[in-house]
Amino acid sequence: MKLLAKTNRYYIFFSVITYLIIAGTFYLVVQYVIYRDIEKRLQVERKDFETYVAKTGSWDTSCYFIEDKIDLTQVRDTLKKLPLFEDTELPNRYTGEPVRYREIKFYTTLHNAFYLVRIRKSLIESDELLTFITATMLVFLSAALLLLFWFQKSISQTIWKPFYQTLAAVKTFDLKKDETLALNRSEIFEFRELNEVFLKMSDKMRRDYRNLKEFTENASHEIQTPLALINARVEELIQEEDLSKKQVYWIQEIHKSSIRLSKLNQALLLLSKIENEQFHETKIINLGNMVKSKIAEYDDIIEHRHLKIIIKEKQEYYISMNPDLADILISNLVGNAIKHNQPAGLIKISVYQNRLEILNTGKLLSTEPGELFNRFKKDKSSAGSLGLGLAIVREISAYYKLGITYQNKGKLHRFTLSQSNKKIPDETKILLSA
Amino acid sequence: MKILVVEDEKGLAESIVSHLSKEKFLCEVVYTLEDAVEKINLYSFDCAIIDLNLPDGEGFSVVEALRKISTATGIIIISARNALDDKIKGLEIGSDDYLTKPFHLSELMARVKSLLRRRNFGGNDEIIFNEIKINFKSRQVFVNDQETLLAKKEYDLLLYFISNINVALTKAAIAEHLWGDNADNFDSFDMVYSHIKNLRRKLLEKGSQDYLISIYGIGYKFGNK
After folding, report:
1. Dist CA B158 CA B211 (whole Å)
2. What pLDDT score was predicted for residue A226?
3. How far apart are CA B90 and CA A56, in angstroms?
4. Which residue of B has its CA nearest to A322?
5. Cβ separation B102–A239 shorter than 8 A
6. Which of A112, A372, B83, B143 is least surrounded by Cβ atoms within 10 Å, i.e. has the fewest?
7. Cα(A269)–Cα(A194) distance, integer angstroms
8. Measured between beta carbons, which residues in chain B are less than 8 angstroms from residue A238?
């Protein structure tokens, strides 16, 4: 839920409650005031009545004929307790509609008989008054609340604006771009502090990132020189005439490991360079042609392993990318298809307008297909490989927002490189049956 | 033949010099950019091997300085940097070759010799080793003046061996020479073996001596037994 929606929700909740409480209280207060007024007047009339009775000793109903204002009923028992005031309803004399009255009740003695006296006053005007006052009050209160609501909403928007600006700036912040966070200066102390914290943090992140990047690069470069030295020394050592079998074995191991280490180092360096987006130059590349030239490069090994290559270029696949990376990408994919193939196996490469499929025969996969593109994930049987080839493929694909997927069916393996967001039809079955 | 080696890693410089000296190359070693510039101003060299990362600057400036003084000197850059940008820049400012560290000394030797052959334009187009004669312009190989037809890789292999006479070469070095970075992708040692087998057969057929010696656990050597 958004911050403003949340504050609005709270505001509405509390204003509705306030509204109800105020309306109720107001209604009760007005009603109380009106009743008090009517009751006072009823008391006065009682006094008038009692004075009249005391003076004349009798009561003439005709004196007060309007609206049954004074009503005398003969009673026997005057001990029964009576409420002083009471609401009652009587039908209107002409229309018969019920009309509300407030009445005062008391006993009196006339001609030695006991009477219950009820003096009434109509509540019609008072009720109307009450309704109008309350209604007017409610209208104004609602208007005030709406106004306040609008007011607080626009205030919130203004107040939180720097916060949203900061949020937007932080969202677009890219560590790799090496740009300072662009934050506006806010008048509000807390937001200013927040911005300062963000600035400090992002600067630290950028510095750390740069250091790490530089360190990785420098370390990788620096490692190559001692490795070159080891290799050179090994080469000198093997020139010795009378090496024992054991010595040869050790030298072999040293040589192998140092070459491996150097390849590993180069591959990691390449990965970090791709991640750091250090390949800027791009060219339009025909991937189909690139595949063909790669296959030509691998001519020797293809012949040596008696692999059958089928290239189907249904359309031309042009892509804009760095030529170096394109070369590495295709090299790794084609190399992968050759390396993990079986003798006299098959490689089928299909090129579409924006899709490249490389299908090859090979051994059953011993790792999880999902982990294939992870670093240092490799088939158990290929101990000699670095386990970085496909990680590099994935990194390059991600860099150019290309989709790379792997599908397999038993001993058939297929890698598909495609422009992202395109669904890849499953043609493995068709191929299998063909 | 005089060769200048500019390499700040003393051990590596020493190895390069000792390897090149076997072929009667006269080597001068310097460890800094400053010394390198001084040397090239004082003497003339047939070839210079220049490292890019020097303690007092980039090797590129040595290349530039050397090119200004002499166009005849062959220049090979050796560097830990494997970026295409560096390679292109190196070639643009006048170097002839670029070798990424770590490299095999035998590979460096082959490159130096190939460079000297190319540089030495007016001279001989032929390399002669006993009864084997290679015309590196027409890429023809003769044994006892009889031509033997070699496949491309076999020819490359022979040239590599001839550039490293009597030097033990590892299978890895041979594979890398033939296939570059692709070498480590495959069972390249098998392929090295089959190419060597074919080369040997073709040379022997034309009556050459058997110069190819297999060294147990290491690789091969070309030369007199």
Report:
1. 11
2. 87
3. 137
4. B84
5. no
6. A112
7. 37
8. 168, 170, 215, 218-219
pLDDT at A224: 84
Residues of B within 8 A of A256 (CB-CB) are 172
A245–B217 C-beta distance less than 8 A = yes
- Give the number of other Cβ atoms within 10 Å of residue B205's Cβ: 11
Pairwise CA distance, residues A428 & A413, whole Å: 9
B99 and B135 share one domain: no
Give the pLDDT score at A427.
45
Of A224, A301, A335, the CB nearest to B80: A224
- Could A236 and B168 be called an inter-chain contact, meaning their C-beta atoms sit closer than 8 Å? no
| Residue B181 burial class via C-beta count within 10 angstroms: exposed 0-12, middle 13-18, buried 19 and up | middle
- A407's enclosing H/E stretch is strand A402-409
Q: Which residue, among B224, B138, B167, B145, has the nearest Cα to B20 in the 3D structure?
A: B167
pLDDT digits (tens, 9 = 90+) for B60-74: 999 999 999 888 899
- Number of domains chain B is built from: 2
For chain B, the first-to-last Cα distance in angstroms comes to 27
pLDDT tens, position by position, A4-48:
888 888 888 998 898 899 888 988 998 899 889 888 988 888 888
Q: Which of A220, A229, A257, A270 to mutate to test the interface with B (most CBs of B within 10 A)?
A: A229
Domain carrying residue B131: 126-222
Confidence of residue A428 (pLDDT cuts 50, 70, 90): very low
Whether the CB-CB separation of B161 and B177 falls below 8 Å is answered with: no
Q: How far is C-alpha A231 from the geometric centre of its chain's CA atoms?
A: 55
How does pLDDT run across B185-223, given as a tens digit for each residue? 667 788 889 899 999 999 999 888 899 998 888 889 998
Can you give the C-alpha Rg of chain B in angstroms?
A: 18
> Cα dist. A282→A94, A328, A333 in Å?
100, 14, 20
A to B CB pairs, distance under 8 Å: 110
- Same domain flag for B79 and B138: no
Any A CB within 8 A of B82 CB = yes
Whether A118 has its CB under 8 Å from any CB of chain B: the answer is no
Distance of residue B16 Cα from the nearest chain A Cα, in angstroms: 8
A283-433 folds as: Heat Shock Protein 90 (3.30.565)
CATH number of A190-275: 1.10.287
User: Is A227 at the interface with chain B, CB within 8 A?
Assistant: yes
Amino acid at A284: I
Q: Which of the two residues, A59 and A19, has the higher pLDDT score?
A: A19
